[in-house]
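User: Hey, quick favor. My workstation is busy. Could you predict this chain's structure for me?
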Amino acid sequence: MQLHKLLNRKIGSTAHTLEKRLLTANQKWSSEDIHQIRVTSRRLRSFLMAYKIAHTAVSEKNHTIEKALRRLTRDCGEVRNLDVAIQNAKTLKLPTQPLKAKRNKQFTRLLHQWDSHHKKKFVHVQLHPLKAELYFSPVALKKILLFFHLKLSALIKKHPKSKTELHRLRIQLKEIRYLLEALDVPVQNLKILQDHLGHIHDLETLEHYFEYPIPIQKPIQRELKKIYRLYDRGVLDKTIDFLRKGLIPN
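Assistant: No problem, here it is.
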């Protein structure tokens, strides 16, 4: 199947997955429900971002859909971040009760913001029109892949090591990974690298929840060593080369 057709089909199936997960999540909204809804909304947002890269004019409806998805990602993310923080706090033998109290507060807010009425409205008003709003032609896909190729190339001219550089790399890899997964491209090494970057971010987020220093430097250093090993194996260089040679049509 042509790549642009594969991407268009993936947009429809991802929107359907999010619709199903939202409407079947009951009042309990398990931690896994929240995690999966957040991830799926992020995937759709990455497709919307790719569409904006390829098109200078974007409809008002497109902006409205993006805004609603961003709110869903944020609301689920506030609870998910605390779920991860609680697990990391247990690992580091830190008190979890303050985190659990924050989590309960954010969870109550999530249930209020996304009750049955709001979920159905979001599905019918935002998700259903999405498939008609987004369509990628072969030319549009070529433009998107070239954009990611140039952006990632610029980012890793010097292997990112600072806190700001690693944060940018984590966000960039997430966007690229979602797109490549939609095109059925193997991304296991990218996912491993992103997981290490994500763990560092989770530990730094955990630190913000406490009003005193906590022992996160050693686990962060362990993650950095794993990241540098992946740099040495050329994971980022191979991704750039693949974007340039394997996906961007002549």
